[in-house]
Amino acid sequence: MADVFMYADETGNLDYQQHEGASRFFGIATAVIRDHGRALNEAVLLRAELHSRGVGLKKGYFHATDDSHPTRKEVFALIAGQGWRLDATMLDKHKAYDRVRDAGEVYLYKMAWYLHFKYIAPIVAAQGDRLFVVAATLGTNARKKAFESALHDVCQVQGPHGRDVHLCHWPAATSWGLQVADYAAWAVQRKMEKGKEQYWGMIADSLETCFMPWGK
After folding, report:
1. Is residue 79 part of a domain?
2. Cα gap 98→14, rounded to integer Å
3. Domain CATH for 161
4. Which InterPro entries is this protein grouped with (predicted)?
């Protein structure tokens, strides 16, 4: 029996409108590691090193969209060397069935989570393990409750047999694992949307799966 932590973040927007800045894909990325102590300590040391050079973090923590290119390179290099298991599930919204579109954003969110969780959870956690699913908080209060309810249903009602699943909603600023998941999600989305593979390449050896159930 072991305690397993699966850190998760979303990437892309949930609506189907193709306005400027809209994403084609919506997806989930997760990060799992066994040696939390070493990974957390190394992340703190990197933050301290950046601070000593006068490098600030716009969000106050590592966040791929807002961090500078040099900072991203150092963060991706750290992630690649820590032994994380990274997985992603990406849904091409252009190929969504009409019934999926009509069901709305929360349904799409829940579907992405379900497709990811039903496959990855039994791989990273054995029967008898406690699986802590740590998800970044999402959206405003009204939407947040709907998303949390959908995720709770996936984890508790449809979770893998024999695993004691605990769902945690934590702000990304509080967790290095969530920041790793954010970086992984950002790199995968960047490759899918723009064909840019520089950052993807830095974590490719850690990315165990990139599942695209609706095709490329």
Report:
1. yes
2. 15
3. 3.30.420.10
4. DUF3800
